[in-house]
Amino acid sequence: MMNVLEAIQNRRSIRRFTDTPVPRDMIETVLEAAIAAPSGKNRQPWQFVVITEQNKAEMLRLMDDGIAANPESAKWVQFTRDIMAQAPVNIFVFNPNGEYPWRSIPTKQRFQELVDIQSVGAAIENMILAAEGLGLGTLWICDVFENYDGFSAWIGNQKQLIAAVSLGYPDEHPDKRGRKGLDKVVTWM
């Protein structure tokens, strides 16, 4: 297994997957890495729903419903849907402490929610780095909101949907994309 710095440098967003199934023990290893993430006040604000081949058709139908209901974003969401269709595994990530995104909540609760969402982001990052170390590819997906209510009802989770991660064996090896240099993003004081 590669070290963490190699995984960070080698990781790419994968948009084409082979149809090779991912063994359950590898999926569990990725999820174990996720739950090892740091979290504010050790709240561990994450829940994962793993969608494999037997339920992929319903997931895609819900994506299609969202695309039909929101034609202005259809192009990008369709692209994401097609990637999710290729991936042998799609993992939906929820914040069980979070509220429905369009609900107004008190400021103190909003601050806690922001801490929890950052913690969920750390869990997702752990997932994608662990997957890289195992020779798997991932795509961190935020285009799951077009049918937010439909996904939540189908999955049976009325908690806050944060993102999804597509997982599988990569069928591409994209070049590294440019990154802003330290001089553009860091201020020393």
Structure report:
The protein has helices spanning 4-10, 24-35, 53-69, 74-86, 107-133, 148-155, 182-185; strands at 47-51, 89-95, 137-141, 160-168. It has a single domain, classed as NADH Oxidase (3-Layer(aba) Sandwich). Helix 1 (4-10) crosses helix 5 (107-133). The model has no long low-confidence stretch (mean pLDDT 91). It has a four-stranded antiparallel beta sheet with strand order 1-2-4-3, with helices on both faces. By secondary structure, it is α+β, with helices and mostly antiparallel strands.
Secondary structure blueprint with pairings:
Layout: H1 4-10, H2 24-35, E1 47-51, H3 53-69, H4 74-86, E2 89-95, H5 107-133, E3 137-141, H6 148-155, E4 160-168, H7 182-185
Antiparallel strand pairs: 1-2, 2-4, 3-4
Helix pairs in contact: 1-5, 2-5, 3-4
Highlighted features:
189 residues, alpha+beta, NADH Oxidase, 4-stranded antiparallel beta sheet, 7 helices, 4 strands, 47% helix
Brief characterization of the structure:
Helix content is 47%, strand content 14%. It is of the alpha+beta class.
Structural category is alpha+beta
In spatial order, strands of the major sheet run: 1-2-4-3
CATH top level? Alpha Beta
Main beta sheet: strand number and arrangement? 4 strands, antiparallel
Q: Overall pLDDT, averaged?
A: 91
Total domains:
1
CATH topology label: NADH Oxidase
Dominant shape? globular
* SS field, number of helical segments: 7
CATH superfamily: NADH Oxidase
- CATH architectural category: 3-Layer(aba) Sandwich
The fraction of residues in strands falls at 5-15%
Helix share bin: 40-55%
End-to-end C-alpha gap: 38 Å
Low-pLDDT windows of residues:
none
Give the C-alpha Rg. Answer: 17 Å
Quantity of strands, as a count: 4
Order of helices and strands: HHEHHEHEHEH
Q: What is the assembly state of the chains in this entry?
A: single chain
